[in-house]
């Protein structure tokens, strides 16, 4: 459907609104004494057109799943986003003056404390991934026609993550996605690398598979037309490349360096006066009803009370890798409830998410080798409770997306992450492929839950629990086959450890997980042969850790604890145990971990050479027991 | 200079070598029973031409600074890289059969344990950044004509980091850089997203500012010509987009799915026979002397014994942000030795690396908003001891480059990293900008040193020490001004804490750094007023931590310790202290940290609301002292 020009007075009204938004951006950052008014001004017309004409929003329920979404990737322009919602009537415009104050949710950068924000932004270059995840869900799961808009700064367009997401969006033909590039020529510390070379942006974005419009971002009608045409473009995401000026319409500030992240100070008044003069024939004209068709209702989705379709069915002693059990559990979850989806970054044949890919191809999203987008898209897909998401790759490669995970935690995302190939037990591939800091990473995310299942039964249950827990869950799985140790009927709970071996004579508590738990059990048998007694504990979740059980069993073993993990020293299971015991005197904790950069070799060789095999556990336990009994 | 065809027999010889390399890749992965022979085969001609004709190498010193460099970004093709060096004569070809064995340095993916490897690869998409860093140094610091080649897989070209680095390379006109894309159409779990659509690769790479050749990657002469022309192209990096086939010349395997990362097993023998048949008129022809001009000698650089040109010159009590002291120290280092360079990601006006940028613009490299490339380029710039590198951005944004830092640690890089704006003390900008997991990140890197200077004097010394320490150093700096507490003559050493307040009556040891150290000092004064006595310790380095001093002072305070940090609980200063005390009974450690996602607000408000202000320290210390004296 071709774009028909709107009446001149409508266009003037949208222009007037843009100026009003500019004024709010100035007054709110003046009140806060910090913030980014010039970065707001360059997108004033973009925001005006999106919010007051193009987007189909529901003021009664800003996170209505059947409405358009906007992600402000350049989160530092938050004041104008807040101003737009206030001008729409969601909350009083006076509240804008509480920007950045402790008691206001109008934070320096947007967070979902606000009911009209889906995800936190402010770490640049992440919005496109989230928007692409939303768009994928809209197109392929909700099968609705709601549209996703994302506003990206030109400074942030140098983030590689942006290009990962554009590639993803084009590959999956996300024609419901519209990416607006605010090319205002100025970054934080100086001019951007590309300035106003619009042709280069065009060439890059066309190369990455977008339907491209290069427009004047301060021309209301250019924007109206581009957004209209975008909505009728099929099989391609649209990139609107808007040539703008930082501080547009701020006399003596517009397009000048050194005005990033600064309120206008004593220039504010004159700029506001100037903007007020630009508002012509205000409150004159109603904006007509939007031209796009109304939104197709979205299906009802119930993402609660997820269960495995059938319980684990293994035989004790059978060698099954926990990563394989992850794949099986995924498949069972989808059998039970079709809202479960999996994403992977070209590692599905290793993570075993390909079990779901084969059984339910529609529930699988291939993200190729691009972990930042993998995580960002997962966060986007989980928004507004449309799906339960599991995203998997090698544990090591989640380090690639730590910033996205960090922002995911700030966003309170419900996405789940599964990292396989942890530790030296992967063997010959060598250190680049070994996850040895993944527990540290995921423990450090506020509100996260970290599972480290020790066998196939507990891994299936971990997946089931993760599907039901709010917030980020991480499940650490291993490459090698390890023996099934739990009965299929064993019950598992978050923060609940399992004691696998105990006697009243125990002298030391051994704590390990998966491969190192197996080594602990072997060491315990060895110790028994020389008349020493070790208790063995499987924590199941590293965060929260079962502090009560560790205290109780630790005290029962005279306060002697040995923690063994296939991870570096810092931030892993060992330090989690130490944190749990920090306020108690009387414990000695010996920690065996990977002490240096590992290397290639057979898994068993590496466990031994890097000091976490049964032999080392045996030796360390014996030493501690002997020394301790000498001292006391 | 135009490319002149080589003699037919030379071309045949290079083709023969390619087949010999293929055979080595098969036999070595057969011996290892794992590895990626098909991924090797697609680059056999590329490697043959580079190693046996194009590159100017020094077999006597493979890391000769005056020689060309190759980075194998697709590190899983390591066997053919090893084979090339072996065939060149660096080590016996028989050694190739030790691939992936514990006692061999021929690991599954390349690491600098080998004297011909500059950086570890294997986590995909990182090679271009490193190569770009090397190229920048070659062009602008060494001012030599050595060239940098980097081989990138098509699967990994979806990593955004690749595009960050291409942007960087084009912006800085790195015409000494040649990026070879091995477009073999197949990824790990299936076909790549772009397959053999060479035009799309061309459009993208031209859009990103490269001089582009699309060639048949199995045609020796195509490669010879492209590398020749690349060497004579000015002001642009060259991208050679090579159309190849995975498992090329492996009958019934070539171009077939499901052969990623698998040795050929029982097909190996027949494939080897086939390849041997393809070797025509072998050992017949000498390869002529290379056509490129010889390498311009590189300047002598001494990167040892770096000093500040002048000592710190502050007045005790003056309010100076540690980030500002970082900028000052950088400038002083360059004044002393011009080998020091700084990189920043469009945050130089906030990190104060702009002090160096203004004083010594030639020693500053702008990396724009692209932290993965920032870190990768820093690692590249530090290679072969050409420069001492400091790379800075907000502490929070290093999470974006955790994978690059992880690989940097495996590479034993000597690059230094400075993260500003740590913790809630940044205030109004809100959680997206707060580094609250950066200590956890940098502690978890093997061999790292983590500085957390508490004032301007100690920060300048931290920068000086970091410049001299091998391995990754991280310096955590703060945004707000904090009082200078050390005399300008105070001496600082790695792993050496400073006790700032003590008396024989001390009942508790308070440990903090920078903003929280100031709060500890305030709390100690408060405690004194109610007759309680606290000792205050500044650790200076978090890794290594001054265990002796903490033990000694902790015992002197009856084993009561209170650690306060502007960081999340996990992996930070608190858990570092707990690890240091793990093997001792008798300590109680109370830990105050940021317990949840923070929000915008005034710095002082946030310190208090999130529980790390003097008031909270006072209260916690009082409580512990009282409870403990009741118990004992």
From TrEMBL, chains A, B:
Enzyme class: transferase
GO MF entries: metal ion binding; thiamine pyrophosphate binding; transketolase activity
Assigned GO CC terms: cytoplasm
Protein name from the UniProt record: transketolase
SMART domains: Transket_pyr
EC number of the protein: 2.2.1.1
Named cofactor requirement(s): Mn(2+); Mg(2+); Co(2+); Ca(2+)
Keyword Transferase attributed: yes
Subunit structure: Homodimer.
Transketolase-like pyrimidine-binding domain ranges (all copies): 320-484
Alphabetical list of Pfam families matching this protein: Transket_pyr (PF02779), Transketolase_C (PF02780), Transketolase_N (PF00456)
Family membership: Belongs to the transketolase family.
Naturally occurring in which organism (per UniProt): Glossina austeni
Calcium found in the keyword field: yes
Alphabetized NCBIfam families for the sequence: PRK05899.2-5
Highest taxon of the lineage: Eukaryota
UniProt keyword terms in alphabetical order: Calcium, Magnesium, Metal-binding, Thiamine pyrophosphate, Transferase
